[in-house]
Amino acid sequence: MAQTFNTETRLAERIRKEDPDLFVTWYFPNTYEIGMSGLGYQLVWWLLEQDPALVVRRGFTDAEEPWQGLCDLLGFTVSWELDFINIISLLRKNDVPLTAKARLEESRERESRKDPPLPLVFGGGPVLTANPEPFHELFDVILLGDAETSVPSLVEAYRNIKKEVGGDREQMLYLLSQVPGLYVPSQYTVEYSGQDNAPIKSISPIRAGVPPVVQRQNFAPPSEYATHTQILSSATTWSERFLIEVVRSCPQECRFCLASYLTRPFRATPVDTLMTKIEEALKHTSRIGLLGPSVTEHPLFDELAKRLAHRSDIDISIASVRADSLNENILATLKALGQKTLTIAIESGSERLRTVMKKNLSEAEIFQAVELIYQAGFEGIKFYGIAGLPHERQEDLEQTVDLLQRLKKKYRSLRFVFGVSSFVPKAQTPFQWHGRDRQSGKKLEYLRKNLARLGIEVRPESHNWSDIQALISRGDRRLAPVLESVSGLGENLGAWKKAMRNLPTGVPDLDYYAFREIPLEEVLPWQHLSDETKSAYLKKHKSEAALAGA
Asked: Would the CA dihedral through 363, 367, 368, 369 be positive or negative?
């Protein structure tokens, strides 16, 4: 355990904590290798670490910084739906009751005995911001929106409210629910229209003062700000690579994409700021990673590429790029800086289906991008694709095979890899009302078999696990006992199948959550976390997709 933390090089300024009044444990519910590879986890740690009166301890499933006693706040970032099993394990490890209700009851007993209070359990990250309802029992407070706003809001509010109400946990939760960007699930009640497979009738606050709609908070960064690695480590997936966020969100807004709609508006880090942070990082490592949903969407990426060009002291890696944003200068720079392959998300070879999903990418632009990559001397391309999208037809799959066949025939020396997943409807996207395609497994196999014949390596995701992701993505509060059941059975598909065969009374089945087409007028589980303006915007995009798919 100690050896893991000994691999680290700290870039963040060390703040003296002479008289702390707040102690926080901040968990990533997976291994150190995975957790410390992501910017989201490091960002929240850094935000907490900057507080001179707050001590923050990091924890993972396989490593924890030394700690004694209870903390004030115990938090988790949730970037993958299935990590909830590890959250339950870590709560048990810390002797913290699993549900907000149980923690409230025990807190009353502790207060009567004058025992130290239990920590407030909070969570954040894309999964919880999109739809926290299946996990509502695990958390006292959920942070919605950008961490740069919600984390300081939680810390400030907790300090102030604690001075006001002391150990009165019930009153503290009530007051926290009134802070913008903080969602307290226990302050809302859900009513259903019936017993079996019944949709939600209403979601409403339990008392006056609790807002009927909780608004996620957006961060407007100053020009000198950038989200980047704060701690380097050789024990991470990226191994000593300094990561920096080039863009947040994506202006294209593909209709299936959670990153586009959840993190709006689109924001780009100024080039001067990027270069300043990179120059500072080069004092510690030559390995630099540029991150974002589509890095080359940065409006001045050409300028960034020019300023990075001919830098022999930099080894650059870059996340997925937009095919229509590439040019000779950008590619020459990336090649010179050590990039050997590029990743392009085409989603489908069908022009019609790309229009349905609002990909805004023509076949001519795809061919042009591959031509430029070939001429620049890259070794290979990884394409991303999706099977089972709304309005998909068999001919769309055939066109995907045909497109890649023509590309492979023309560019034989390029190594092609096709990573493909089956469509999972995500909350707070235009496709949230669409169910999973029951034929997705057969469609994945069709692509795998036919592309393999062309000498293209295919990396399909498991459609069975995608079913479970959809279940959680569109789930409601009734799933809570199912999650607890699965956590006791194991982290495998067999555990899920057993839990779904033995559903408690009143819990809808997999078909209801994952495969059903949801009527537009139905109350969604996350409706109180998205205002009418956004809902109308998503419905408009869904309607436009239907017209394109007709």
From this structure: positive
